[in-house]
Structures are given as structure tokens and as C-alpha cells.
Specification:
single chain; alpha/beta; Aspartate Aminotransferase, domain 1; Aspartate Aminotransferase, domain 2; 2 domains; four-stranded mixed beta sheet; 36% helix; Aminotrans_3; aminotransferase; pyridoxal phosphate binding; transferase
């Protein structure tokens, strides 16, 4: 690779690269960071400046960058073979990952279908759910119920179940109809819910921590789901949810017991439950999987991002023997085969990274480490309770959303065109921290394995930047 200057790299990027989720006209007027290396919890740009990776490289890195154990595992596998197909053949790394996942996943989930990204893991789940009923003589059970505000990816099926007007409006003609039930969003309660957002700052907690309000909100949303199931369970293949926290919806926390309520309704009305843990899995909520914290056993579990430690593209859709048997059949002429697959399914290099990642969870006691990190975050961000421009701080484990507002009195947002949260985040780069916003929400996504001294530094930068910012009135 050629050794260009930073300005030359930027010029070439502006000329040739189309970035995801990026307004490219605006982008080409900016001077972006060009990240050349990583080291532990830090990213290092082409000028040698170090930044704390506060977004876990888009919510996927778990243990850090250039982790010796993962590096060595990938190098060792590279000395054997970089890629071989799983179509009609098997490979030791994918077999071992599947075995380990079956031991790690909740309940009866022990069959693993590999793919290469979060959206593909969810698309596979959709096909499995519809096929499960089809092969049992119930082809009418082919529809889905999703959670309002959900995000599951940007392929056609995932757009349909997680439709966002902002992201997907130009493609409305491509998606299939999906029903959705209201999410228990404290700051934006669904239409028909009588209680307004609680103002509880003086009592020492955030709106999303108001137990009484959120229990009522949860019950209301579950009631709406049951109304839908009473009428449509006979045509519903599955309910699809992001467990515990909806990320792209604005870091929306689900009250304790909400997910369990969804599971109970799925069982009551004989529909499958798909848990999309692409973003929330592998330690981010203080549990290996978010469903573990709610004692929920989904029928289908979708995994990606952190499965390889954030090193290489790998995803898995994990199901029970019961679902597997429906597709297996005894006769090839029954045509129960799941005709779905991707070229790099179960890639050996990615699987080697995953196995090393799993080992590090045990070696470094990452779950307990992440729980201590969550306590640090919670205590430090309480300093913002009296800030007039902080509407809410929503947290599950090490996943955090700090919602900015013009006024707490009426929860008035900032003018979208002002990019307020984005500007606040950009100011933190001068202090050596990279984070990204979602609209007016500053998102903190430290690695579950981030060293506590680096997390403390990250929180120092965040709190200082917010306190010193001159917010528009």
C-alpha cells in the first residue's frame, strides 16, 4: 500500500469512496479523520494522534485493537487456509464456534447457521420462521410483528420489519407490510398512553429510571401487542425484537420485565420469538446476551458484531433442535432444505477470531469487568442531572444514550439542521475521543473490555464537553 500524506488520503477518499449513512455532499466539504492503526482502546490516525474508540468501531469491538490472542489466532489460521466454503463441506473453526455457541446460548439453542453480517443473520431468521410454519402445513403464518422504531438492518426484509422513514423512505415500494406494536419509550410515550414523561430530576434519577411510570408504560405496550395477537396470531410467523435496548431508535431502554412479557405472549399465541442481539450481545448489557438478564429463551437468536471481537465479518442465527428438525426431513424430495447461504459463511479466519474472543471473555472475566464499567458510567453521568439541556440519560450496561434538548419543560428538540449533538461530539475529538450521535442523542458505546482508566478519561471528556457547551436557546 502506498504511503500517502493525510491530505492525499482525504483527497482520494473524497474522489472515490461512498461512505455508509453519510451525507456525502457535506462529507466532501470536511476534513475527516483517516484511521491508520489501532492499539488497545485507541484508534490512531495518519498524523499519529490517538483517540479513545468510544463507539467500539460501530458497536462491534469487544476487547480492543491489536489484541495479541486474537491476532495470533487469525495468523495461525491464515497459515492453514483463509477461506473454504461450508456448502457441501465442513471446517474445524466453524464447527468449534458452533459448539461453543451452543454452550453459551440460553436454553435449547444449539444449531448454528452462519452468515456474514447482522442484517443477513436477521434475514436468515425470517426465512427460518416462515419456513418453520410452511413445512408444518401452515403457510398462512408468514407475517411478522415488530417493535415500533426498530432497526434490524438495511436489506429488504430487515427494512420491512425495522422501517425508518429517515433511512428507508425512498425504498418504500420495496418493503413488505409489517405490523408493529408500541415501544416503551419514556420520553416519547405512544399515542393513547395517558401519562406524560416523568420530571424526576430533583428526585435524583432520570426519566428512563422512573419505575412506576415505566411499569405502566410497559403494561400498555404489552397490552397493545396482545390485542394484535388476538386478531392476527393465525397469520403471524414471529415477533421480532431488539432485546433490552433499541439502539438506532435512540437508545430506547425497555423496562425490566418487558421482554419477558413479550416472550410469554409469543408462547401464549403460538408464534416464534426472534431476538436480534446483533448490537446488544456479547457483554454490552452486563450479560453475555441481553436475553440472559431477563431469563428469556427466544426461539431464534441473531448474533454478529461482537461475535468475532469486532475483528472480521461473522454472524450467526442460532435455533433449537425443534426448528432444525422441521427443515431436516428424511427425504431430499420433501424439499425442506433451507436454500440460503453466503459466499463467506463461516469464514475460517473470522471463526478463529471468534474462538479467541470467547476465550478472552473467560480469561479476562469481561462480564464482571463490564458491570463495573456500567457502574462507573452511571455514577459519573449523574453529574448531568441538573443540566437544563439534558432530557434523559438512558443506559443498559455499557450502552448509553444522552439525549439533548432545547428545553426540559416540553422536551423540545434542537433544530435538526443545526446538528447540535454532532457538533458536541466533534468538539470531543480535540480531547482525543471519538463518539457518534443519533440525532440529538450522544451515544456512548465503550468496549465491554475497555480498561477502566481509559473509560474514566472518556467520561471526563464527555461530561466536560457537555457542561462547557453553549447550547442554542
Amino acid at each position: 500500500m502506498k504511503n500517502y500524506t493525510t491530505d492525499e488520503w482525504i483527497a482520494l477518499d473524497h474522489k472515490h469512496v461512498w461512505h455508509p449513512f453519510t451525507p456525502m455532499g457535506y462529507w466532501r466539504e470536511q476534513k475527516p479523520l483517516v484511521i491508520e492503526r489501532g492499539e488497545g482502546d485507541f484508534l490512531i490516525d495518519t498524523d499519529g494522534k490517538r483517540y479513545i474508540d468510544g463507539v467500539s468501531s460501530l458497536w462491534c469491538n469487544v476487547h480492543g485493537h491489536q489484541v495479541k490472542e486474537i491476532d495470533d489466532a487469525v495468523k495461525t489460521q491464515l497459515g492453514k487456509i483463509a477461506h473454504t466454503t461450508l456448502l457441501g463441506m465442513a471446517s474445524p473453526p466453524s464447527i468449534e464456534v458452533a459448539k461453543r455457541l451452543s454452550e453459551m446460548c440460553p436454553g435449547r439453542l444449539n444449531k448454528v447457521f452462519f452468515s456474514d453480517a447482522g442484517a443477513t443473520a436477521v434475514e436468515v431468521a425470517f426465512k427460518m420462521a416462515v419456513g418453520y410454519w410452511f413445512h408444518q402445513g401452515m403457510p398462512e403464518k408468514c407475517k411478522f410483528i415488530g417493535l415500533a422504531g426498530a432497526y434490524h438492518g438495511d436489506t429488504t426484509g430487515t427494512m420491512s420489519v425495522g422501517y425508518s422513514d429517515l433511512f428507508h423512505k425512498p425504498f418504500i415500494s420495496m418493503v413488505f407490510p409489517v405490523s408493529s406494536f408500541p415501544a416503551p419509550d419514556t420520553c416519547r410515550p405512544p399515542h393513547g398512553f395517558e401519562k406524560s414523561m416523568p420530571k424526576c430530576y430533583a428526585e435524583g434519577h432520570w426519566p428512563s429510571e422512573d419505575k412506576e411510570h415505566n411499569e405502566a408504560l410497559s403494561a400498555y405496550c404489552l397490552g397493545k401487542l396482545e390485542e394484535m395477537l388476538k386478531s392476527h396470531a393465525g397469520e403471524t410467523a414471529a415477533i421480532v425484537v431488539e432485546p433490552v435496548m433499541q439502539g438506532a431508535a435512540g437508545m430506547v431502554c425497555q423496562p425490566k420485565g418487558f421482554l419477558k412479557g413479550v416472550e410469554q405472549l409469543a408462547k401464549k399465541y403460538d408464534v416464534l420469538l426472534i431476538a436480534d442481539e446483533v448490537a446488544v450481545g456479547f457483554g454490552r448489557t452486563g450479560h453475555l446476551f441481553a436475553v440472559d438478564g431477563e431469563h428469556v429463551e427466544p426461539d431464534i437468536l441473531c448474533l454478529a458484531k461482537g461475535i468475532s471481537g469486532g475483528y472480521l465479518p461473522l454472524a450467526a442465527t442460532v435455533v433449537s433442535d425443534e426448528i432444525d428438525r422441521v427443515f431436516a426431513g428424511d427425504d431430499v424430495m420433501e424439499r425442506r432444505t433451507l436454500y440460503h447461504g453466503h459466499t463467506y459463511t463461516g469464514n475460517p479466519l473470522a471463526c478463529a477470531a471468534a474462538l479467541a474472543t470467547f476465550d478472552l471473555f473467560e480469561k479476562n472475566d469481561v462480564i464482571n469487568h463490564a458491570r463495573k464499567s456500567a457502574e462507573m458510567i452511571h455514577e459519573r453521568l449523574r453529574e448531568l442531572l441538573d443540566h437544563p439541556n439534558i432530557l434523559d440519560v438512558r443506559q443498559r450496561g455499557t450502552m448509553v444514550g444522552i439525549e439533548l434538548c432545547r428545553s426540559r419543560d416540553d422536551a423540545e428538540p434542537f433544530d435538526f439542521s443545526k446538528r447540535t449533538a454532532a457538533e458536541v461530539c466533534m468538539s470531543m475529538r480535540e480531547e482525543g475521543l471519538i463518539i457518534r450521535p443519533l440525532g440529538d442523542i450522544i451515544v456512548l458505546m465503550p468496549m465491554p473490555g475497555m480498561k477502566h482508566e481509559n473509560l474514566s478519561r472518556m467520561l471526563d471528556v464527555v461530561v466536560k464537553a457537555i457542561k462547557q457547551w453553549s447550547f442554542e436557546k
